[in-house]
Structure formats: C-alpha cells, structure tokens
Write a structure and sequence with these properties.
The structure is a single chain. 44% of the residues lie in helices and 17% in strands. The chain has helices spanning 43-55, 72-87, 91-106, 124-139; strands at residues 3-6, 20-26, 36-41, 59-65. The protein has a four-stranded mixed beta sheet, covered by helices on one side. The protein is globular and about 45 Å long.
Length: 140
C-alpha cells in the first residue's frame, strides 16, 4: 500500500474549484525513476484516481491544484510565497529546500543561443488560448 498526500482545505477554499494534478513517484529512496504527472482533473476525480493507484502499489501520490496563472507576476508571487513558507520551516527542512532549489536552478536543458529560445513570456491571451486547447483536447 502506498501513500496519498494532498492539501487539507476548508470546504469553501477557492482552490477546490481549480484543476488538480497527480504526481506519482517512488515511496522510498531505494527506487529511482522520474515521477509521473497526470491531469488536470477535478479534485474528486484526482483523489479517486490516486487512491486507486496507490491502493495496491508501493507509490507516493501527491494531489495538488494546478495554478492557472497567466502573468509572470502571478507566478513570481507564488514563488515568493513558497520561499517565505520555507523560511518559516525548521532549519533542517529549510536547508534541504535550499539545496534542492539550487540544484534545480543550475539544471538547464537548452542552449540560450538557440534561435527558438525566447526571453519574453507568452501573453495572457496566448496562455488562455492554450488553456482552451487543453480543455478541448481533454473533452474530445
């Protein structure tokens, strides 16, 4: 039997109406493989799917809301809030978070000299059009 981790939210939390994703990964450090991310789903569907998968497998499932941010400022706001939360954790956990954050920031899988590398984020309209394409794909 695996484990399911999700947010404990009040019944009126706005996040309950967001799309939710599931990240499946190994339960322990002995097993090494890339996590599998599935979704988006409605929260109830995500929880039910995650429960079904981890019921007979030694896996960790994390069910969390997908933030439909359409601006860089919204994304940066969430990053700042996450960093602030990390500062409020105990010293050992905060040190581990910093170590992992440093590792992720140093990994880049593309060359900045490539012609297809853009420095400007997509517009709000482009992001919303992408959301529409995803919704259409999932509903067909």
């Amino acid at each position: 039997m695996g484990a399911l981790v999700t947010l404990d939210l009040p019944a009126d939390a706005p996040a309950l109406t967001l799309p939710w994703i599931i990240t499946f990964g190994p339960m322990n450090d002995e097993e090494e493989w890339e996590p599998v991310v599935c979704g988006p789903y409605e929260r109830a569907h995500a929880l039910a799917l995650a429960e079904a998968v981890v019921a007979d497998e030694d896996l960790m499932a994390v069910v969390e809301p997908l933030q439909p941010h359409v601006t860089v400022a919204q994304i940066e706001g969430d990053i700042a809030a996450s960093r602030l939360a990390a500062e409020n954790e105990d010293v050992e956990t905060a040190a581990l978070d910093a170590e992992l954050a440093g590792y992720e920031e140093s990994y880049h899988d593309h060359d900045h000299g490539d012609d297809d590398h853009t420095h400007e984020p997509p517009s709000v309209e482009e992001i919303r059009a992408g959301f529409s394409r995803i919704a259409a794909k999932l509903s067909s």
